[in-house]
Specification:
With 381 residues, this protein is of the alpha/beta class. The protein has 13 helices and twelve strands. Strands 1-7-6-5-4-2-3 form a seven-stranded mixed sheet, with helices on both faces. It has a five-stranded mixed sheet with strand order 8-9-12-11-10, with helices on one face. Strand 5, helix 6 and strand 6 form a beta-alpha-beta unit. Helix 2 packs parallel to helix 8 and helix 3 crosses helix 4. The protein starts with a helix and ends with a helix.
Length: 381
Amino acid sequence: MKFGTKAVHAGVEPDPSTGAIMTPIYQTSTYVQESPAKHKGYAYARGANPTRNSLQKSIAVLENGKHGICFSSGMGATDAVIKLLSPGDEVITSNDLYGGSYRMFKKIYEKFGIKFHFIDLSKSANISPYVNSKTKLMWIETPSNPLMNIIDIKACVDLAKTKNILVAVDNTFASPYLQNPLDMGADIVMHSVTKYLGGHSDVIMGALVTNDDKLHQELAFIANSCGAVPGPQDSFLVLRGIKTLHLRMERHCSNGKKIAQYLKGHPKVGKVYWPGFPDHPNHDIAKKQMRDFGGMLSFTLSNDSLKMATKFMESVELFSLAESLGGVESLINHPASMTHASIPKDERIKNGLSDSLIRLSIGVEDVEDLIADLDQALTKV
């Protein structure tokens, strides 16, 4: 079954009681039981909800996985993965990743005795020196946020499997439409469902997908025990959003390509970070493990001035200055003061994230209007 067909139909069946083609919103906190512990598969809504179950099945199918678990946010999903670990365990992760993930790893879990190595994972040769008997997890984000670094998932998996290390991939920027890490051997895929899967900037949610039965049991236990689960209304909205994922991603990708090319050719623009360029680091790996290059990109102005970057971000009209990404509307973001502000400045600069970097989430508007908006803002800097 091709992706578009799966997006429309996976996990969704007509309601058996009414024939409703859309999954109902089961707005209930508990379920009546026939006899103590004898019920229809549902006892309390923190543990299971029919609307959420349909969504979990849908996301699992899109990722070519067996099991899906939804959480109240992407950070809730990430948190569940780290809770698989114990004090003394070590994690290898990227030096360029979402600021919220960095904040959780450094500020929350390091004080519980889990050690994190933030390294350049775009070069797989960098990994081996950090692997030891305590290494239990490799956390990969590709394309990375915000520098669009590409990490070779298969190379990381091949190394990890020789050492019994779990590999989890944050697939938010790519979405299941562009990339399926489980097919490359990853153990867990994480999504901030808020972004492309929801697609309409109206839901906060996260998800994990795995093919491993034992991992699924452990993660489901964590979700139920710790309670970071989404409600049925949000689950319904994401089920609706997923039905157009393939259509939206086609437009995100085509718009992203045109805007990346426009920016690269503009004299007031410095460096453009977009994995579709042949000179982008690991472009060949992106071509191999992705179906297209997505609608996310970052860039600097040619004068690399924070003052001018701020002026530019204040001058756009169609692009909204806001955190988040992956919605139908185009957003502009300043990572250093917004999504990555929790990372110390010296760490940001060391890893190539300058104070003047600008990140774009390209929406599905008419690309000519988006380019005209960028053009008029560039005339003001």
